[in-house]
Specification:
The protein has 349 residues and is an alpha/beta fold. It has two domains: 14-131 and 322-339, 3-Layer(aba) Sandwich (Rossmann fold), CATH 3.40.50.720; 136-312, Rossmann fold, CATH 3.40.50. The protein is 33% helix and 13% strand. It contains 13 helices and twelve strands. The strands form two sheets. The chain has a seven-stranded parallel beta sheet. A five-stranded parallel beta sheet has the order 2-1-3-4-5, with helices on both faces. β10, α12 and β11 form a beta-alpha-beta unit. α2 packs parallel to α13 (321-339) and α6 crosses α9 (190-200). Residues 144-317 form the D-isomer specific 2-hydroxyacid dehydrogenase NAD-binding domain.
Length: 349
Amino acid sequence: MKPTKCRVEERGTEDDRNPNPKPFSSLTTPPPAMESLGVLLTFPANSYLEEELSKRCKLFRLWETPPENWRQFLRANAGSIRALVGNSTVGADAEMIDALPALEIVASFSVGLDKVDLAKCRERRIRVTNTPDVLTDDVADLAIGLAIATMRRICEADRYVRSGAWNAKGDYKLTSKFSGKTIGIIGLGRIGLAIAKRAEAFDCPISYYSRSEKPQTNYKYYSSVVDLAANCHILIVACALTEETRHIVNREVMDALGPKGVLVNIGRGPHVDEAELVSALIEGRLGGAALDVFEHEPHVPEQLFGLENVVLVPHVGSATWETRKEMADLVLGNLEAHATNKPLLTPVL
């Protein structure tokens, strides 16, 4: 349980899923079983989720407690906490799970599960859910937006106008077009496929790396990330974070992508060797980068701040009002299903 400032995925089988999940509605009266459910919220959630949890359950707000006092907080409330709602920053690691002997379910407000100790959950027979599908469009939209922003230097051009440079120095420099560029995607799951569909609308050839070839697509498959990088203009990271995919984008991959290539990461920060990325950008061995995620969030290497060929956003892939409400409804629906002994909406374990 590391104090923290406040994507290959495991899924339940189709048989485990509720075949006709009833959409969660905040207008319904919570069942009595929900009212006795003690829920630990590990992060400062959006007001809708927090209000609904507070209204329907017995809510424990871990994030209001300083990290150095978490152990004391958990000891004081361990017997009452039967459910945990975490996110991509503070989930349920082994130490957290061990501190909660009554824990029955972990509902992740995220599709990625790298902050949940799945092995420990299996050992304890703790159920696990996440929020797949509902955030796919937003994350895919952002990936394309980041790629275009980097190729066309949109952020830099915006600063050029705001600073008065257009009037003082004249027209902005030429940039590179996005349409028609070869897109390489690491991870062709839900989000990877959604990115590919969007890129196809720009006449971009698609290639990908995955653990195995996807027979349902006609995209070119590479069994090596290095080979993929060497044969694309824009490399987009869209896989889940596992020990196998940690630093999947290393120096060799960046050098293969080259001084005209662009890296886009909308997966997880540790997918990219951040120190090597900084060096590659400063030395001109990599053409540009667009990052929604970072290796040690919320800390970002200061060397990136002054680089004109870099676009940085603060982990906002799913951060729209519409999607965050849908994610919250999945969390609430899964907790209600658990409390009432009904099939979970999006089971992982």
